[in-house]
Amino acid sequence: MAASSCIFCQIARSSTSTILLHQDHKVIAFQDINPSAFRHYLVIPIEHIPTVNDLHKRSEDYTLVSHMLNVGQTLLQRDAPQAKEYRFGFHQPPFNSIDHLHLHCLALPFIPRWRELKYSSLGPLGGFVEAGVLLERIKPSF
Questions:
Q1: Is 40 annotated in the active site?
Q2: Rounded CA gap, 99 and 1, in Å?
Q3: pLDDT in tens, 64-102
Q4: Which of 40, 47, 49, 122 could lock onto 127 through a cystine, CB 3.0 to 4.6 A?
Q5: What superfamily does domain 3-138 belong to in CATH?
Q6: What is the pTM of this model?
Q7: d(Cα 33, Cα 57) in Å, to the nearest integer?
């Protein structure tokens, strides 16, 4: 999908009515349109990066994902401090719904409970990758 027709690029350019929870020079955050948990936010880079497969072991990718995670953690701690568990991660192709990198930030419980399956790792098949695991994967060698 070209960046010009990408719904997340449109949101990042403020071309939609989506209410932003956070905005800075690198990322924006907003509520998921189809929430799977008590609180479910998405943090996306303003730059069009299709999927986790487009991230590499380089400092700029590591810094971006770290920033995305920090923004998501800050928002959920602010908006759902009573949550007993949080989950942060990315769907990997072919399980991603939109080809624009996006971090799922979930304050659990899942609603309904069966949605937990959608946010589980499928081992070598991919599925959902926790943000910390992805950060280890793309951590540059110093």
A1: no
A2: 7
A3: 999 999 999 999 999 999 999 999 999 999 899 999 999
A4: 122
A5: HIT-like (3.30.428.10)
A6: 0.95
A7: 31
